Amino acid sequence: MTVHFIGAGPGAADLITLRGARTLAACGVCLYAGSLVPRELLAECPPGARLIDTAQLDLDRITAEMVRAHEEGQDVARLHSGDPSVFSAVAEQMRRLDAAGVPYEVVPGVPAFAAAAAALKRELTVPTVGQTVILTRVAQRATPMPEGEDLATLGRSGALLVLHLAAMYVDRIVDELLPHYGADCPAAVVAMASRPEELVLRGTLGDIAGQVKEAGVVRTAVIMVGRTLGAEQFRDSHLYSAERERPHAPCGEPAASEGASAP
User: Fold this and answer.
1) Which of 92, 205, 206, 207 is the most exposed place for a label (fewest CB within 10 A)?
2) How far apart are CA 64 and CA 83, in angstroms?
């Protein structure tokens, strides 16, 4: 049978994808990160499904549960918060399943940074202002960052930085980015994005740390720093420009894809 790594989304239960919900409803075993995945999602599991909270389990025990379900002929839903492609600890689970000969697939989900951008009502890439988004974190008690991926190095790019798992270290983040972005650079923090308790903080690199500490934000937050967060005066994109040539499709045939054009 198959292990399905499913992105549960950023927090709101209704932000799981249709494919994710359908897959969850078809699996007799569900392993979920109890501290992050909304409990309401478990209602999508079929009656009698074996539900396993992995919050207190190590990698060996998690793998053992998936292998056991496979041997019993059960499909497994492995629910991860956000999207499995970033900061999900899915890679080491896949490596273990490969070694055990257990097949798996990945169902993408809505990532936390996308939910944060929605809460801010901001497009993160704005023509002539910024076209690059860097997803990263800081190293503290967790796994060290690879060489060349420290904040000082990434900050030299001037790109929009999105920091996960970093709210506790906001002072350090500000100190390392100030020389590259300046105190007036727009910054924002979104905690519990998409959840009822969502909190949005807006400011600059010079004052955002104070806001974070005053609000008591220490976890489940996304920090964003970059000029696109405050962009107002910018050129319209080429995508919908009146000057852009648009091929006329024959009657009954679809026109060229909107996404085929650069910004």
Assistant:
1) 92
2) 23
CB neighbour list of residue 183: distance below 8 Å, 6 or more residues apart: 204, 205, 206
CB 117 within 8 A of CB 185: no
Burial class (CB in 10 A: 0-12, 13-18, 19+), 163: buried
SS3 readout for 142-179: CCCCCCCCCHHHHHCCCCEEEEECCHHHHHHHHHHHHH
Give the pLDDT confidence of 79-121 residue by residue, as tens digits.
Answer: 999 999 999 999 999 999 999 999 999 999 999 999 999 999 9
Angle, helices 170-181 vs 208-215, to 10°: value is 160
Supply the angle between the helices 90-100 and 59-71 in degrees, to the nearest 10. Answer: 50
Residue where the block lists tokens 């023509």: 127
In this structure, the strands spanning 104-107 and 133-136 are unpaired
Cα separation of 127 and 106, whole Å?
32
Q: Would you say 30 and 50 are in contact if contact means Cβ atoms under 8 Å apart?
A: yes
Provide the pLDDT for residue 184.
Answer: 97
| Rounded Cα distance, 56 and 64, in Å | 14
Which token pair is 132?
A: 């690059």
Q: How far is CA 16 from CA 23, 24, 29, 183, in A?
A: 11, 10, 18, 37
CA gap 48, 252 in Å, rounded: 49
